[in-house]
Amino acid sequence: MTDILWLIYEFFKAGLFAVGGGLATLPFLARMAESHPAWFTTEMLANMVAISESTPGPLGVNMATYVGYTVAGIPGGAIATLSLVAPSVAIIMLIYRVLQQYKNSAAVKSIFGGLRPAVTGLIAAAGFSVFRMAVLTGETGSLAALVNWKALALFAALLAGTQWKKTKGFHPVLFIAVGALVGLLASF
Amino acid sequence: MKELFELYSAFFRIGLFTFGGGYAMLPMLQREVVNHHRWTTDEELLDCYAIGQCTPGVIAINTATFVGYRRRGVVGGIVATLGMVSPSLVIITIIAMALSPFMSNPHVAHAFAGIRVAVAALIASSVIKLAKKSVKDAVGIALCAAAFILVALAGASPILVTLGAGLFGFVMGKVRDRK
Lengths: 188, 179
Description:
A: 8 helices; 0% strand; B: 7 helices
Protein backbone atom coordinates (compact mmCIF):
# COMPACT_ATOMS: atom_id res chain seq x y z
CA MET A 1 0.00 0.00 0.00
CA THR A 2 2.76 2.45 0.88
CA ASP A 3 4.42 1.56 -2.41
CA ILE A 4 1.27 2.60 -4.28
CA LEU A 5 1.17 5.95 -2.48
CA TRP A 6 4.84 6.50 -3.25
CA LEU A 7 4.18 5.60 -6.92
CA ILE A 8 1.41 8.20 -7.11
CA TYR A 9 3.65 10.83 -5.50
CA GLU A 10 6.75 10.08 -7.59
CA PHE A 11 4.97 9.87 -10.96
CA PHE A 12 2.73 12.86 -10.30
CA LYS A 13 5.92 14.80 -9.57
CA ALA A 14 7.57 13.55 -12.75
CA GLY A 15 4.45 14.40 -14.77
CA LEU A 16 4.36 17.87 -13.26
CA PHE A 17 8.01 18.79 -13.73
CA ALA A 18 9.36 16.75 -16.66
CA VAL A 19 9.25 19.41 -19.37
CA GLY A 20 9.94 18.40 -22.95
CA GLY A 21 8.57 14.94 -23.58
CA GLY A 22 9.18 11.31 -22.70
CA LEU A 23 12.96 11.33 -22.38
CA ALA A 24 12.68 14.22 -19.92
CA THR A 25 11.13 11.77 -17.44
CA LEU A 26 14.41 9.82 -17.47
CA PRO A 27 16.25 11.96 -14.89
CA PHE A 28 13.26 11.52 -12.54
CA LEU A 29 13.32 7.75 -12.97
CA ALA A 30 17.07 7.74 -12.32
CA ARG A 31 16.38 9.58 -9.07
CA MET A 32 13.67 7.07 -8.16
CA ALA A 33 16.19 4.24 -8.55
CA GLU A 34 18.37 6.03 -6.00
CA SER A 35 15.70 6.99 -3.50
CA HIS A 36 13.77 3.68 -3.71
CA PRO A 37 16.50 1.03 -4.04
CA ALA A 38 13.96 -1.77 -3.48
CA TRP A 39 11.99 -0.75 -6.61
CA PHE A 40 14.58 -1.13 -9.35
CA THR A 41 18.27 -0.54 -10.08
CA THR A 42 19.76 1.91 -12.56
CA GLU A 43 20.71 -1.11 -14.67
CA MET A 44 17.10 -2.32 -14.81
CA LEU A 45 16.12 1.21 -15.78
CA ALA A 46 18.23 1.00 -18.93
CA ASN A 47 16.43 -2.23 -19.87
CA MET A 48 13.11 -0.46 -19.30
CA VAL A 49 14.17 2.37 -21.61
CA ALA A 50 15.18 -0.17 -24.26
CA ILE A 51 11.85 -1.98 -24.02
CA SER A 52 9.92 1.30 -24.01
CA GLU A 53 11.80 2.43 -27.13
CA SER A 54 11.15 -0.81 -28.99
CA THR A 55 7.43 -1.11 -28.20
CA PRO A 56 4.58 1.07 -29.47
CA GLY A 57 3.35 4.08 -27.54
CA PRO A 58 4.83 7.20 -25.98
CA LEU A 59 8.13 6.56 -24.21
CA GLY A 60 7.18 8.27 -20.93
CA VAL A 61 3.92 6.30 -20.66
CA ASN A 62 5.65 3.01 -21.41
CA MET A 63 8.28 3.66 -18.75
CA ALA A 64 5.65 4.61 -16.16
CA THR A 65 3.69 1.43 -16.88
CA TYR A 66 6.86 -0.67 -16.70
CA VAL A 67 8.14 0.85 -13.46
CA GLY A 68 4.69 0.76 -11.86
CA TYR A 69 4.25 -2.90 -12.81
CA THR A 70 7.69 -3.79 -11.47
CA VAL A 71 6.92 -2.13 -8.15
CA ALA A 72 3.30 -3.17 -7.57
CA GLY A 73 1.95 -5.41 -10.33
CA ILE A 74 -0.90 -4.55 -12.70
CA PRO A 75 -2.54 -1.92 -10.42
CA GLY A 76 0.89 -0.34 -9.99
CA GLY A 77 1.31 -0.01 -13.77
CA ALA A 78 -2.08 1.62 -14.22
CA ILE A 79 -1.67 3.95 -11.24
CA ALA A 80 1.84 5.10 -12.19
CA THR A 81 0.65 5.84 -15.74
CA LEU A 82 -2.43 7.80 -14.64
CA SER A 83 -0.36 9.73 -12.07
CA LEU A 84 2.16 10.67 -14.75
CA VAL A 85 -0.55 11.83 -17.13
CA ALA A 86 -2.87 13.68 -14.70
CA PRO A 87 -0.84 16.88 -14.21
CA SER A 88 -0.21 17.40 -17.91
CA VAL A 89 -3.88 16.83 -18.79
CA ALA A 90 -4.92 19.57 -16.33
CA ILE A 91 -2.10 21.90 -17.35
CA ILE A 92 -2.71 21.57 -21.10
CA MET A 93 -6.40 22.41 -20.68
CA LEU A 94 -5.45 25.48 -18.66
CA ILE A 95 -2.77 26.50 -21.14
CA TYR A 96 -5.12 26.11 -24.08
CA ARG A 97 -7.29 28.83 -22.57
CA VAL A 98 -4.52 31.16 -21.39
CA LEU A 99 -2.41 30.82 -24.50
CA GLN A 100 -5.06 32.23 -26.80
CA GLN A 101 -4.47 35.55 -25.01
CA TYR A 102 -0.74 35.59 -24.33
CA LYS A 103 0.65 33.67 -27.30
CA ASN A 104 2.80 36.58 -28.45
CA SER A 105 3.85 38.02 -25.09
CA ALA A 106 7.57 38.73 -24.79
CA ALA A 107 7.78 37.28 -21.26
CA VAL A 108 6.38 33.90 -22.38
CA LYS A 109 8.79 33.81 -25.30
CA SER A 110 11.81 34.54 -23.10
CA ILE A 111 10.82 31.92 -20.51
CA PHE A 112 10.62 29.28 -23.26
CA GLY A 113 13.92 30.59 -24.64
CA GLY A 114 15.57 29.76 -21.32
CA LEU A 115 13.84 26.40 -20.91
CA ARG A 116 14.71 24.81 -24.25
CA PRO A 117 18.53 24.72 -23.98
CA ALA A 118 18.39 23.70 -20.31
CA VAL A 119 16.03 20.81 -21.09
CA THR A 120 18.46 19.68 -23.78
CA GLY A 121 21.20 19.65 -21.13
CA LEU A 122 18.97 17.65 -18.79
CA ILE A 123 18.37 14.98 -21.41
CA ALA A 124 22.11 14.86 -22.11
CA ALA A 125 22.67 14.22 -18.41
CA ALA A 126 20.17 11.35 -18.50
CA GLY A 127 21.93 9.93 -21.55
CA PHE A 128 25.24 10.19 -19.73
CA SER A 129 23.97 8.08 -16.84
CA VAL A 130 22.97 5.32 -19.30
CA PHE A 131 26.33 5.68 -21.05
CA ARG A 132 28.21 5.40 -17.77
CA MET A 133 26.45 2.15 -16.96
CA ALA A 134 26.62 0.65 -20.47
CA VAL A 135 30.17 1.57 -21.43
CA LEU A 136 32.13 2.28 -18.25
CA THR A 137 32.98 -0.58 -15.89
CA GLY A 138 33.02 1.41 -12.68
CA GLU A 139 36.51 0.14 -11.89
CA THR A 140 39.12 2.73 -11.11
CA GLY A 141 42.88 2.64 -11.52
CA SER A 142 43.66 2.96 -15.19
CA LEU A 143 41.72 4.17 -18.19
CA ALA A 144 42.00 0.72 -19.79
CA ALA A 145 40.22 -0.87 -16.83
CA LEU A 146 37.57 1.85 -16.60
CA VAL A 147 36.26 1.49 -20.14
CA ASN A 148 34.55 -1.56 -21.63
CA TRP A 149 36.24 -1.19 -25.03
CA LYS A 150 33.90 -3.55 -26.91
CA ALA A 151 30.95 -1.54 -25.66
CA LEU A 152 32.63 1.76 -26.51
CA ALA A 153 33.27 0.59 -30.08
CA LEU A 154 29.62 -0.45 -30.45
CA PHE A 155 28.52 2.90 -29.01
CA ALA A 156 30.68 4.82 -31.47
CA ALA A 157 29.47 2.74 -34.42
CA LEU A 158 25.78 3.12 -33.50
CA LEU A 159 26.10 6.83 -32.81
CA ALA A 160 27.80 7.26 -36.19
CA GLY A 161 24.91 5.29 -37.68
CA THR A 162 22.36 7.75 -36.26
CA GLN A 163 24.26 10.62 -37.89
CA TRP A 164 25.26 9.12 -41.25
CA LYS A 165 23.03 10.28 -44.11
CA LYS A 166 22.21 6.79 -45.39
CA THR A 167 21.32 5.20 -42.04
CA LYS A 168 20.01 8.05 -39.89
CA GLY A 169 16.44 7.58 -41.12
CA PHE A 170 16.41 4.00 -39.80
CA HIS A 171 13.96 3.14 -37.10
CA PRO A 172 15.31 3.22 -33.49
CA VAL A 173 14.14 -0.40 -33.09
CA LEU A 174 16.72 -1.37 -35.73
CA PHE A 175 19.56 0.20 -33.72
CA ILE A 176 18.32 -1.59 -30.61
CA ALA A 177 18.20 -4.90 -32.52
CA VAL A 178 21.79 -4.41 -33.69
CA GLY A 179 22.83 -3.68 -30.09
CA ALA A 180 21.12 -6.87 -28.87
CA LEU A 181 22.70 -9.00 -31.60
CA VAL A 182 26.22 -7.65 -31.06
CA GLY A 183 25.84 -7.95 -27.30
CA LEU A 184 24.74 -11.57 -27.69
CA LEU A 185 27.47 -12.57 -30.18
CA ALA A 186 30.31 -10.69 -28.48
CA SER A 187 29.21 -11.71 -24.94
CA PHE A 188 29.11 -8.25 -23.40
CA MET B 1 -21.07 10.35 -27.73
CA LYS B 2 -20.11 9.24 -31.21
CA GLU B 3 -17.32 11.79 -31.40
CA LEU B 4 -16.03 10.78 -27.96
CA PHE B 5 -15.75 7.21 -29.21
CA GLU B 6 -13.98 8.43 -32.34
CA LEU B 7 -11.52 10.43 -30.20
CA TYR B 8 -10.77 7.36 -28.10
CA SER B 9 -10.31 5.00 -31.06
CA ALA B 10 -8.28 7.48 -33.14
CA PHE B 11 -5.79 8.04 -30.32
CA PHE B 12 -5.79 4.33 -29.48
CA ARG B 13 -4.62 3.64 -33.04
CA ILE B 14 -2.01 6.40 -32.83
CA GLY B 15 -0.68 4.94 -29.57
CA LEU B 16 -0.66 1.44 -31.00
CA PHE B 17 1.25 2.15 -34.20
CA THR B 18 3.84 4.65 -32.98
CA PHE B 19 7.31 3.42 -32.03
CA GLY B 20 9.78 5.76 -30.41
CA GLY B 21 7.66 8.49 -28.88
CA GLY B 22 6.63 12.08 -29.65
CA TYR B 23 8.32 13.00 -32.91
CA ALA B 24 7.85 9.60 -34.52
CA MET B 25 4.14 10.12 -33.94
CA LEU B 26 3.70 13.15 -36.20
CA PRO B 27 2.89 11.28 -39.45
CA MET B 28 0.28 9.11 -37.65
CA LEU B 29 -1.29 12.20 -36.06
CA GLN B 30 -1.48 14.00 -39.38
CA ARG B 31 -3.20 11.02 -40.96
CA GLU B 32 -5.81 10.54 -38.22
CA VAL B 33 -6.36 13.99 -36.78
CA VAL B 34 -5.80 16.30 -39.75
CA ASN B 35 -6.62 14.33 -42.91
CA HIS B 36 -9.18 11.81 -41.70
CA HIS B 37 -11.18 13.54 -38.95
CA ARG B 38 -10.22 17.17 -39.72
CA TRP B 39 -10.09 17.97 -35.99
CA THR B 40 -7.16 20.39 -36.44
CA THR B 41 -5.06 21.87 -39.24
CA ASP B 42 -1.40 21.05 -39.81
CA GLU B 43 -0.43 24.45 -38.39
CA GLU B 44 -2.39 23.88 -35.17
CA LEU B 45 -0.73 20.51 -34.81
CA LEU B 46 2.69 22.15 -35.04
CA ASP B 47 1.70 24.79 -32.45
CA CYS B 48 0.65 21.94 -30.23
CA TYR B 49 4.08 20.32 -30.55
CA ALA B 50 5.75 23.62 -29.65
CA ILE B 51 3.61 23.86 -26.52
CA GLY B 52 4.24 20.20 -25.68
CA GLN B 53 7.98 20.77 -25.85
CA CYS B 54 7.77 23.54 -23.26
CA THR B 55 5.10 22.19 -20.90
CA PRO B 56 5.31 19.33 -18.43
CA GLY B 57 4.45 15.82 -19.49
CA VAL B 58 4.81 13.47 -22.41
CA ILE B 59 4.40 15.30 -25.74
CA ALA B 60 2.12 12.62 -27.17
CA ILE B 61 -0.18 13.00 -24.16
CA ASN B 62 -0.15 16.78 -24.38
CA THR B 63 -1.20 16.53 -28.03
CA ALA B 64 -4.02 14.08 -27.28
CA THR B 65 -5.32 16.27 -24.45
CA PHE B 66 -5.09 19.37 -26.62
CA VAL B 67 -7.03 17.91 -29.54
CA GLY B 68 -9.62 16.18 -27.32
CA TYR B 69 -10.21 19.32 -25.25
CA ARG B 70 -10.65 21.44 -28.35
CA ARG B 71 -13.32 19.10 -29.71
CA ARG B 72 -15.31 18.06 -26.64
CA GLY B 73 -14.07 20.04 -23.61
CA VAL B 74 -12.75 18.42 -20.44
CA VAL B 75 -14.35 15.03 -21.14
CA GLY B 76 -12.94 15.01 -24.68
CA GLY B 77 -9.45 15.77 -23.37
CA ILE B 78 -9.60 12.92 -20.86
CA VAL B 79 -11.08 10.42 -23.33
CA ALA B 80 -8.46 11.16 -26.01
CA THR B 81 -5.67 10.84 -23.41
CA LEU B 82 -6.99 7.49 -22.16
CA GLY B 83 -7.14 6.29 -25.78
CA MET B 84 -3.49 7.22 -26.17
CA VAL B 85 -2.26 5.35 -23.05
CA SER B 86 -4.44 2.22 -23.36
CA PRO B 87 -2.25 0.30 -25.87
CA SER B 88 0.90 0.99 -23.81
CA LEU B 89 -0.71 -0.19 -20.60
CA VAL B 90 -1.68 -3.52 -22.13
CA ILE B 91 1.47 -4.16 -24.18
CA ILE B 92 3.99 -3.12 -21.54
CA THR B 93 2.25 -5.08 -18.80
CA ILE B 94 2.35 -8.24 -20.91
CA ILE B 95 6.03 -7.69 -21.77
CA ALA B 96 6.94 -6.99 -18.13
CA MET B 97 5.16 -10.18 -17.06
CA ALA B 98 6.82 -12.31 -19.72
CA LEU B 99 10.27 -10.82 -19.44
CA SER B 100 11.15 -10.95 -15.77
CA PRO B 101 11.81 -14.76 -15.68
CA PHE B 102 14.15 -14.49 -18.68
CA MET B 103 16.27 -11.65 -17.34
CA SER B 104 18.47 -14.04 -15.34
CA ASN B 105 19.35 -16.08 -18.45
CA PRO B 106 22.98 -15.22 -19.42
CA HIS B 107 22.22 -14.90 -23.16
CA VAL B 108 19.40 -12.46 -22.44
CA ALA B 109 21.72 -10.55 -20.11
CA HIS B 110 24.35 -10.24 -22.88
CA ALA B 111 21.73 -9.06 -25.37
CA PHE B 112 20.51 -6.43 -22.91
CA ALA B 113 24.05 -5.25 -22.23
CA GLY B 114 24.28 -4.57 -25.98
CA ILE B 115 20.84 -2.96 -25.99
CA ARG B 116 21.91 -0.57 -23.22
CA VAL B 117 24.79 0.60 -25.41
CA ALA B 118 22.32 1.17 -28.27
CA VAL B 119 20.03 3.16 -25.97
CA ALA B 120 22.95 5.38 -24.92
CA ALA B 121 23.73 6.01 -28.60
CA LEU B 122 20.06 6.75 -29.41
CA ILE B 123 19.78 9.23 -26.54
CA ALA B 124 23.02 10.90 -27.66
CA SER B 125 21.59 11.28 -31.17
CA SER B 126 18.34 12.75 -29.75
CA VAL B 127 20.39 15.27 -27.80
CA ILE B 128 22.30 16.26 -30.95
CA LYS B 129 19.01 16.71 -32.83
CA LEU B 130 17.46 18.73 -29.99
CA ALA B 131 20.55 20.87 -29.47
CA LYS B 132 20.50 21.94 -33.11
CA LYS B 133 17.05 23.46 -32.55
CA SER B 134 17.25 24.67 -28.96
CA VAL B 135 20.84 25.87 -28.48
CA LYS B 136 21.23 28.90 -30.69
CA ASP B 137 23.68 31.29 -29.01
CA ALA B 138 26.34 31.58 -26.29
CA VAL B 139 23.70 31.92 -23.56
CA GLY B 140 22.03 28.74 -24.83
CA ILE B 141 25.32 26.84 -24.80
CA ALA B 142 25.98 28.04 -21.24
CA LEU B 143 22.48 27.04 -20.07
CA CYS B 144 22.70 23.63 -21.72
CA ALA B 145 26.18 22.96 -20.30
CA ALA B 146 25.21 24.23 -16.84
CA ALA B 147 22.12 22.00 -16.75
CA PHE B 148 24.19 18.99 -17.82
CA ILE B 149 26.96 19.59 -15.27
CA LEU B 150 24.57 20.35 -12.42
CA VAL B 151 22.52 17.19 -12.95
CA ALA B 152 25.07 14.68 -14.31
CA LEU B 153 28.06 15.58 -12.17
CA ALA B 154 26.78 17.56 -9.19
CA GLY B 155 23.60 15.51 -8.60
CA ALA B 156 21.27 18.53 -8.64
CA SER B 157 17.50 18.10 -8.88
CA PRO B 158 16.14 18.34 -12.46
CA ILE B 159 13.11 20.20 -11.08
CA LEU B 160 15.20 23.04 -9.65
CA VAL B 161 17.27 23.23 -12.84
CA THR B 162 14.10 23.49 -14.96
CA LEU B 163 12.56 26.16 -12.75
CA GLY B 164 15.87 28.04 -12.62
CA ALA B 165 16.20 28.01 -16.40
CA GLY B 166 12.67 29.36 -16.87
CA LEU B 167 13.35 32.12 -14.36
CA PHE B 168 16.68 32.89 -16.03
CA GLY B 169 14.96 33.20 -19.42
CA PHE B 170 12.35 35.52 -17.92
CA VAL B 171 14.98 37.78 -16.31
CA MET B 172 17.10 37.82 -19.49
CA GLY B 173 14.02 38.96 -21.40
CA LYS B 174 13.44 41.79 -18.92
CA VAL B 175 17.09 42.85 -19.16
CA ARG B 176 16.85 42.89 -22.96
CA ASP B 177 13.73 45.07 -22.75
CA ARG B 178 15.51 47.64 -20.58
CA LYS B 179 18.24 48.18 -23.15
